[in-house]
Amino acid sequence: MVMMPLLETHLLQTYHELRLAHLALSIMTSGYVWQEGDKETVKVLPRSLSVPFCEVSQRLGVPPILINADTVLANWKKRDPDGNLELLLTLPGGESVRGFFMVSLLVEFAAVPGLKSILDVINGVHDNDVAVVTKALDVVNQALESMKQALKLMHEYVDPSIFYGILRIYYNPLMPEGLVYEGVQEKPMEFSGNSAAQSSLLHSFDELLGVQHEGSSGAFLKRMRDYMPPSHRHFIENISSRLSLRSFVLQQADERLTHTFEQCVARLVEFRNLHINIVTRYITIPASCAKQLRAKKQDLTEELDKIGKAPTLLEERDCGFILPEPLTDLPVYYKPWMDIARNAPELISSHSLRLRIHDMPLLETHLLRTHRELRLAHLALSIMTSGYVWQEGERETVKVLPRNLSVPFCEVSQRLGLPPILIHADTVLANWKKRDPDGNLELLLTLPGGESVRGFFLVTLLVELAAIPGLKSIPDVINGIHDNDVAVVTKALDVVGQAIDSMKQALKLMHEYVDPSIFYGIMRIYLSGWKDNPSMSEGLVYEGVQEKPMEFSGGSAAQSSILHCFDELLGVQHEGSSGAFLTRMRDYMPPSHKQFIEYISSHLSLRSFVLQQADEHLTHTFEQCVSRLVDFRNYHITIVTRYITIPASRAKQLRANQQCLAEELDMIRKAPTALEERGTGGSGIMTFLKTMPLLETHLLQTHRELRLAHLALSMMTVGYVWQEGERETVKVLPRSLSVPFCKVSQTLGLPPVLIYADAVLANWKKRDANGNLELLLTFPGGESVRGFFMVTLLVELAAVPGLKSIPDVINGVHNNDVAVVTKALDVVSQAIDSIKQTLKLMHEYVDPSIFYGIMRIYLSGWKDNPLMPEGLVYDGVQEKPMEFSGSSAAQSSILHCFDELLGVQHEGSSGAFLRRMRDYMLPSHRHFIESISSRLSLCSFVLQQADEHLTHTFEQCVASLVDFRNCHINTVTRYVTIPASRAKQLSANKQGLAEELDIIRRAPTTLEERGTGGSGLMTFLKTVRDKTKYASISQCTTGNQVLRDLSMTEIQKI
User: Is 636 annotated as a binding residue?
Assistant: First the structure.
């Protein structure tokens, strides 16, 4: 930078030239200042940069620093004739920087119709034309909503850690004395960093709507206007000087105008709330994490401390199936192998790996003498083989592996007793080293896919680490059975159960460190083999070893010995194709691992021992182990759904539609088509995972065990039915699932389908000592699923005081005690208000596009559902199809109780639906509702007493209930009605506008206007809401006439 010549600026003659020059000089300035981070900043900007920068800035009327008008407004170009955009210049941070600036630009684009309408508002106010102002404000309102939707894309395209840890420093001055601009001014100059507050959008809308910011916030926003191009400032000042829209709205007192104005203000508040969420995710949370890390002085990148630090687990005798202390290098003779293997990702990306391997010498393998040398050689050769085969993707595979790679690979494999292909024992068990003395881990060799590859293999290694205590306890179980020692067996099984739970917790980290689109679109093909793979249906010829092609399965989680051991321990038997596949996968394990599994199988009949002993504690511990193993497999299915099933579905649609909706979708589209429905090990992935033994249910003895079983079986059922969405539903539920599900349901008095009592009431646990809650089981949809169920659970918790007060109301009515009834009703009113406030949290934690496009179908049933008009056959239970409604808020007992309490009567189809929904409640809940109905006539009591305080409190309860139902209707509008409308428009227009719209378009079309319970959703909700209104005292005597009048009005309209 110091060697750059001092250039004159007078040759910059056009405005566009000056803007580009300012952008380039600001990027250079920011890079010069922050090149070494915040620890080695500079105090002086060299003359060759500072002089032209200040001259250009003076001519433009903006400060000489990187501003929003540079990085966003003047930093784009059309990448192709289709209008796709690209940045002109960028900063460190890769795709996240591109995403940040591009999403910010999309927000600006989304605002354009609203900005253009501001002049119409000004003219309409000047001409006293209410219609013009209303119409223009409606455009502003839509623009604010579009800005919000555009801003949401930030979550898709910007990594918080990259924004906070890399990009953000180029925005924020951390220089208390300022910066000397050499050749311009001797004293340091101070300028604020780039900020969203420098965008003219919100300033314009604030002035339009009369939003005033005071104090330090107002002063900061005014100062930020000095960082805008002068024409932008003038436009804002023009709005301010020519308009008093709020006064106009108040003077006109026009209902539609007032509503539209209020809607604009509400949209502006919503946008700012979302912006706060963005700031929290990209600054506040990372800042908090950074503080903690600095305080603890340790690297928690892979969260090893959650499972157990490496030094304590990686002692040689305690390694489980992990190779202790793998070698990091081979003898110097094998340098050609290691050089290529270490650079495999770069060589593959540059399409030069095959060329390098062709030039590689044929090396002898006899110099590899130790087991660890052989394991590292196998890893290096397998990485090279996988890269060689799949370098050009599935369309240009090879048929022959060259001699200089195939001969040594087969020799090493033969000595190890392993197949010559990339396996789990390579990439996970023998592919790690300690990165530092604290025990943090790093990979030895990797594949294309960057941090997601690292995350995938290290998280899988954590699962192996978590299993170690359980594996070490298996010999204790065997010895305890041999010695007939119940206590020893129970204690050892307890350790096994905890280990399986720890494995699940470790597996959850996959969501944190592995990007689904990168796993599916880039990395997954390199784990694939050449058996049961349509891309290489004939296998692969290993030149110099065998003339005929050889077939080997790819790397698979089924090659891990962990679950094989626990299956043998607990007596879990896999039959059919799944059993055959698992048995075959044992040939892909190191021989010592396979022998240990066989040792367990030959020495043990734990199930028989548990049954013979009939010891309550032992039986409970055994059942807990089985339950946790089921939980782990359920969670693994969730992982597979997120990382394979959903991306495969997206890829199919993209290929069908021949369109590209974003960088992520581009990666997904490149994924191999032949692997869409298969595991990398060659198994039919969902078929394999769902195949399970037919388990007896008589060991489920307590109510809680039955409830958890019902939850687990219902989750599996909806996953099985809706796995492929609406287009490939099933007609028969397999016997191994349907028989136990129906038995458990019969015992509980519930239907065999996912119901509200499963997904909400019995699906939580305390996450920590502070009482924070977590779900037990979930399904596709990520954080939005968690948010949906958790908020709904909070609604139930908020209702508790009101429910507890209902017996007080009943007793007070029975004893003719007005004071008791009034006091109890006051609690009910407060509880209803609390559930409304709680329901509002749905907007914070649930993304409408994810709820509608991904999650909602799993709540659907097979009654009144056009997707499954004939219902579902429960194999082994009944030959004829059975029909059951899906999970619905109408299955919550709360509003049924409050309706009965307040005398709210629902008639017609809505009433019939609500009554049917009671069959989906627990019997004890139904009995409580019926108890209220049979013992109470509160409305009559209130009328008889004619007590002003009592009447007011009763009316307040009814009003609160109406408010709650209005709030619920708003929620349904946001999460169902609006996305359904968008989906229809997309189907009609055949276009995709963004990731959110892509998700919505994938939603089942036949469910667009129906609730997951099967009701005609909005009609039902509004009918229920309207009926609630007629429970008020003022309507008790005139309600029937009002209903008749409404009916006649509607008839006259028709």
Answer: yes
